[in-house]
Design brief:
The structure is a homodimer. Chain A is built from 16 helices and eight strands. The first copy, chain A, is globular, with a radius of gyration of 20 Å. In chain A, the strands form two sheets. Chain A has a six-stranded parallel beta sheet with strand order 1-8-5-4-2-3, sandwiched between helices. In chain A, helix 7 runs parallel beside helix 9 and helix 10 packs across helix 15. Chain A is of the alpha/beta class and about 400 residues long. In chain A, a hairpin with a 4-residue loop joins strand 6 and strand 7. Helices cover about 50% and strands about 10% of the residues of chain A. At the A-B interface, strand 1, helix 8 and helix 9 of A face strand 1, helix 8 and helix 9 of B. Strand 1 of chain A pairs antiparallel with strand 1 of chain B, so a sheet runs across the interface.
Chain lengths: ~400, ~400
């Protein structure tokens, strides 16, 4: 086990009607004027928007608002948010929505109190050392941004999708009401579940030995997602299944299952190039990339893939041929993803073979390799992308 | 799953030589004058005391100190600590040791800024609403107090052992260096491992259904302890095994594996009466009580005991007789406890049959039942205590 620090100071308020505590929580964590940041009409249609506004009005918490966050959130809206916060003297940002709204809120939070261009944080030109406090009301179990220090933004000029991180970006509070996720369509639900699984996998596939405790947590979260997702797809209003998936989504990414070990993150980086160009749902892009990444690294480093097969998918170990066991694990994962309606090829997400060179150029613009479990070269990634093209 | 809140804002600094960051962490969390609170000579013998003092001196952090914390910490020393803090203008308390030193430090932290008797918190006469900040350097993987809001103190006048709780008692930081636990004798190591397991069990044995995610975390922590403890007893300097056990100990009690569910805590309460009178190591007392509690509740509510057998101890389910499977799980647990040198009877911990009535009187002084998984009456607890007497 490697040395580590772990700090997850977010206050989580989880359960039915938890959103009604929002004004009280904003006050508790020092907010006196709020920017409400959200996506499109879904929170208005569901009535959530009205409940939040009603709660703030009732408690006399002043606010301004900025909607319009799109999946794979863009830099343009962040600049607007920063300007608005400065102009209006906002001191607290409330994100209402999924990972995109939260990531965009974090970018505004850091950018509002920074003299330079907020994209400096995303291009590695500055560290996030201060930010306005952020609170969240989560509506999708997926990105884990509600408990993480991370934010991913797409630079509109270059279409480069980049992450930034900093403990000050961890939300002060996050409100998780599973009921709010019940209206989510099956495809978005499944893409969210896939995102959660890959957040765990990027930590699970590690060369650090002797990390039993985090291995067991990773497996526990994966098994929960595998159990609950089909139950939700069968019955979208299944509160209990939604609740378990929602909490699993937080645990998958606040790093409690990732401490003390080298992590990978190649699948995420490879996927980010896809969703930056095609605006594919991140989880759906991961459903294409991650199993192909597994197939690719299997030959070079089968160890953890054998554990993945036996401990997560409960496939009996073939001691004479552990690699065959590992392959069965990948096949089980692929079958699961297909069963929940996730894509498995470029064609299914509208990606084009002709763009591979361009994506690889962008991916390797600042580094010679990707990932850690197996360090992937440019050629490796080309091979992974190509294997996603049907008939390849 | 029940509604819940979860808040674990402690900063964990984990790994080799982490204690050398202590002065920096005290400063970061606002300390300007420190009370160092610890037990006996072991931290002096090991050199830890000198390293801590050296670090504070080097960084110019002023301190006073109070040693002498005993296992099952007593109210007398807490009063001394409160007086010292007030007299010296202490604004930060650093506990160096195990759960006893930390629990005593939390009591001093709350008592120093409270006008009444600090025992009010423990007797349910007042809520802990403020406290001096506490930091810890942990030397034993056991109590989980390094990440929990809890503290247990024995009132010296009455020998009543009582707990108090409050989020302000969660340490600001906890330093966990597994190397510091390598000198711990086998008996203390095993008692700590038992304490960790029962912290999980008190949460696992719940009537709340549909809590897959926390069930899987509980099982993961239990399996880690079962795997690592014998490796430590075989090789006390096994850093990796010590590291996994140490982090498991934190996770077992910061409540990440207990949210959203009714918990039990009968075994702890039944044990507290033993350790209050006989000063037996808490984990060793639990090793006597917990399996007998399991045997007792098996007849009334076998459900979770079947899961415990199949999922934790990997005993195949006998579908025609699940209770028999559950019993095999309890037997596996008892065999494990014996194998790590833990006691299984009153005789082995110096407890006396004649004291049973007195302990039960104290246990039920404020309540008619104990626990939730099965609500135990006075007669139930008498039966459990009696079953701990050999030849009974």
């Amino acid at each position: 086990m490697d040395n580590f620090t772990f700090y997850s100071p977010t206050f989580f308020d989880f359960g039915r009607e938890a959103e009604l505590h929002v004004a009280e929580l904003i006050r508790r964590f020092g907010g006196s004027k709020v920017l409400i940041h959200y996506g499109g009409g879904s929170i208005k249609k569901s009535g959530l928007y009205d409940r939040v506004i009603g709660c703030l009005d009732e408690e006399g918490v002043p606010y301004v608002e900025l909607g319009g966050v799109k999946p794979n959130p863009r830099s343009g809206l962040v600049y607007q948010g920063i300007e608005l916060c400065r102009k209006e003297g906002v001191d607290f940002i409330l994100a209402v929505g999924g990972g995109s709204a939260i990531d965009s809120a974090k970018a505004i939070a850091a950018g509002s109190v920074y003299d330079g261009d907020f994209l400096d944080f995303y291009h590695g030109r500055a560290d996030v050392e201060k930010a306005l406090p952020v609170g969240t009301i989560l509506t999708i179990a997926a990105a884990g941004s509600e408990g993480s220090p991370n934010t991913v933004i797409t630079d509109e000029k270059t279409l480069i999708k980049k992450g930034a991180s900093g403990d000050v970006l961890r939300p002060k509070f996050s409100i998780l009401n599973p009921e709010l996720t019940c209206t989510l369509p099956p495809y978005q639900t499944a893409a969210g579940a896939t995102d959660i699984m890959i957040h765990v996998c990027e930590r699970y596939f590690s060369n650090t030995s002797e990390v039993e405790i985090t291995d067991r947590l990773c497996e526990g979260i994966l098994k929960t997602v595998i159990y609950e997702t089909p139950r939700i797809l069968e019955n979208p209003n299944h509160y209990e299944a939604r609740a378990n998936l929602m909490w699993a989504g937080m645990l998958a990414h606040n790093n409690v299952c990732g401490v003390g070990r080298e992590q990978d993150w190649a699948s995420h980086n490879i996927e980010h190039e896809l969703s930056a160009i095609y605006d594919v749902t991140h989880g759906a892009g991961l459903a294409v990339v991650a199993p192909l990444w597994m197939r690719h690294v299997l030959k070079k480093n089968p160890g953890k893939l054998v554990d993945f097969a036996t401990r997560v998918w409960e496939i009996p170990l073939d001691e004479t041929n552990p690699e065959a066991t590992a392959l069965q694990g990948i096949e089980a994962f692929e079958a699961f993803l297909k069963s929940i309606g996730m894509p498995g090829s470029f064609e299914e997400i509208g990606a084009k073979k002709e763009d591979i060179e361009r994506m690889v150029d962008k991916l390797f613009r600042n580094s010679d390799t990707q990932g850690n479990y197996v360090k992937l070269t440019r050629e490796d990634v080309i091979e992974i992308y190509k294997s996603a093209v049907k008939g390849s």
